[in-house]
Amino acid sequence: MRAVAASLAVATLLVIACGGGGEVSISDAWVRAAAEGQNSAVYLRIENDGDADVLLSATADVARMSSLHQTTFEGSVVRMEALSTLEIPAASVIALEPGATHVMLMVLERELVPGETVPVQLYFEHAGVITVDAEVRALGE
Ligand SMILES: [Cu+2]
What pTM value is reported for the model? Predict the structure, then answer.
């Protein structure tokens, strides 16, 4: 009987360890308004209350392709480079914002009109898939 109780305790601990839910949360997700065929970008805040995680990729149905990008400035030259993944340190807040890290949406399948929302899927190594509704905004709004 004691062995059964012990194994139940172990099982409970495993469930807690694997639960992981609610530690990564997304807020203020928005996407830049753009015409069909153009590129756009998704910006958002990632709040991690738990252990380190990794953002592996992000996708949106409205774009033919998407990838994680980092904007860098070399003097007056603005460049974007693709990131294979984005590290999310333990207990951190990461902001994806204009002029910095963003989710690049390449070749929009349709126009993105300010005020509507677009579902975006974020794939985390530990937190799994998180879907957010990104609000379409004109840049500078
Ligand atoms: Cu980009």
Answer: 0.82
